[in-house]
Prior knowledge:
Elements: H1 2-16, H2 32-49, E1 59-64, H3 65-75, E2 97-103, E3 127-132, H4 138-151, E4 155-160, H5 174-193
Parallel strand pairs: 1-2, 2-3, 3-4
Helix pairs in contact: 2-3
Amino acid sequence: MAVDKEGYEIGDWLSDLGYTAFVLQYRVPNNRLGALQDAQRAIRTVRSISQQSAINKIGILGFSAGGSLSTRTATRSSEMLYPASDAIDKVSARPDFAILIYPAYLDLGKNKALTPELTITKQTPPIFLFVASDDPYANSSLVMASALQKAKSPYELHVVPAGRHGYGMRPGNPAAETWPILCQNWLNKQILKNK
């Protein structure tokens, strides 16, 4: 199940590194707006309950379709996509960083260009991208990195030669054994930067 491989196992890994992690179970399938509303509310909720020392260290991490959701959360955070119901909905939905592991569906524009709903600016939070070149969705990471480069928005892109798609952190796959180390180093730098 994806929520195990790309959710609970990742939450445990982050906890082992000393981070507080939450696993979001969002509305799927075929409810992209509902999923984005869920992600926005989750960011707002986590920020509203965080200690002051962690308030600017809240990120989002997603795999495959969850990578698409994480990207939409990072690039559409200023949009209020549901009616406010309480004080939590007045809190910022902008993640301070985003981690996209083999993201999909970021290249739905004309001629496989960046998906039109994604607006990349200098205000887009720092993004970590990881993909294998033999992944059928690899172009998503490449067009996203290109858009971030054009906008002068900070990012780090890693492309490894093999691994395909959907490996999470499971042993036996070279990509699954590579991205966590690179991501941990990048994440530590982001957290230190936001002290």
